[in-house]
Amino acid sequence: MNPETENVTEIPESTDSSSSPSPIRSTLGGATQDGATATVAGETPASHAKGITITGLNAWYGSQHSVRDFTLPVARGQVTALIGPSGSGKSTVVRCINRMHEEIPGARAEGSVMLDDVDLYGSSVDVVAVRRAIGMVFQKPNPFPTFSIFDNVAAGIKLAGGKGEGNMRDRVEKSLRGAALWDEVKDRLGEPGIGLSGGQQQRLCIARAIAVEPDVILMDEPCSALDPGATLKIEDLVHELKKDYTIAIVTHNMQQAARVADTTCFMLDGQLVEHAPTEKIFSNPDDSRTEEYVTGKFG
Ligand SMILES: Nc1ncnc2c1ncn2[C@@H]1O[C@H](COP(=O)(O)OP(=O)(O)OP(=O)(O)O)[C@@H](O)[C@H]1O
Ligand SMILES: [Mg+2]
Question: Is 91 in the pocket of ligand 1 (CB under 6 A)?
């Protein structure tokens, strides 16, 4: 699938939803109806963070069964890395989390994906609200090509129907600061977004994603098109972002997983092989296939 197409198709749909809050919009927007927040005792809740629980997920492209009986908690306020060889199903899983998988002709998914206590595949769920609550950053930076730096972020807010606090200028600045980009662009906000370097463009896309204050951010190989310096900036940013957001990140870079992730999930042939604290996955995994993969014997 073309990442640019994914994002472009997503944003305009959001306009429609802004005038008609759905049950999930109000649930996703704050505390649950009884005020419960599903916070684990003793845990410091991140302000926007909610946890994802994937249970018994199966995903198909036509007759091809690409994700099988996949179960994974993505803990709130933590970074969860998905690793595994090419074709093992990592991108499919993240696209199932924010319901982008079903946009692919012939694709379907079964199973349960919960955002805290909301079933994202429930019959009353507004898919647009799901994608607003669960932001996505793609492999290739995909700023809106004709938009300025400012408008790239503002467009995300407007088209997603965001009505958060503060005026647009303040919200754009806050998002750019949150994406560690403000100091580099504050004097050129009117210039085209695509005039930035690749690493800056990726941080612009992160600014666009966080501008609507999502609960979760999905990142599918966000650094694979970047040089080592730009990669480290994104990794530093991930550390900052996890104070406020739950993050799932797909990576082929073992060092990156080791640097940024609290827990790491190893996938093979559409199945979960092992999910454990990152340190364990890289030093003492339970499954021999995990060990072979992380030590570079295949993949
Ligand atoms: N749009 C699609 N149409 C048909 N099959 C697809 C599509 N996208 C993925 N697949 C298939 O589903 C399986 C899982 O693919 P997926 O892209 O999720 O793997 P991945 O782990 O993200 O791989 P990579 O590391 O190369 O990005 C593969 O067999 C792939 O060929
Ligand atoms: Mg992929």
Answer: yes
In a domain, 170, yes or no: yes
Q: What is the 42 CA–ligand 2 centroid distance (Å)?
A: 35
Backbone dihedral angles phi then psi of residue 260, each to the nearest 5 degrees:
-105, -20
What is the spatial distance between Cα 286 and Cα 85, in angstroms, rounded to a whole number?
Answer: 18
Q: Report the nearest atom of ligand 1 relative to the CA of 104.
A: 1
Residue 110 domain-assigned (yes or no): yes
What's the pLDDT tens digit per position in 134-146?
999 999 999 999 9
Q: What angle do CA 140, 142, 146 make, to 5 degrees?
A: 145
Ligand 1 pocket test, pick from 57, 58, 61 with the greatest ligand atom count within 8 Å of Cβ, gives 61
87 CA from centroid of ligand 1 (Å):
5
CA–centroid distance, 96 to ligand 2, in Å, is: 12
- For atom 27 of ligand 1, the residue with the nearest CA is 86
Instruction: Tell me the C-alpha distance between 253 and 219, whole Å.
Output: 13
Query: At 264, which CATH number?
Result: 3.40.50.300
Q: Is residue 40 part of a domain?
A: no
Number of structural domains the chain divides into: 1
* DSSP H helices in the chain: 3-17, 23-28, 90-97, 127-133, 149-159, 168-178, 182-185, 198-211, 228-241, 254-260, 278-283, 288-294
pLDDT in tens, 261-276: 999 999 999 999 999 9
134-137 and 216-220 beta bridge pairing: parallel
Determine, yes or no, domain membership for 36: no
Mutation choice for ligand 1 from 88, 95, 298, CB with most ligand atoms inside 8 A: 88
Query: Does the predicted model carry a pTM greater than 0.90?
Result: no
Provide the domain limits for residue 208: 3-27+47-294
229 secondary structure, DSSP code: H
Structure tokens at 105: 């002709």
Whose structure tokens read 């599903």?
38
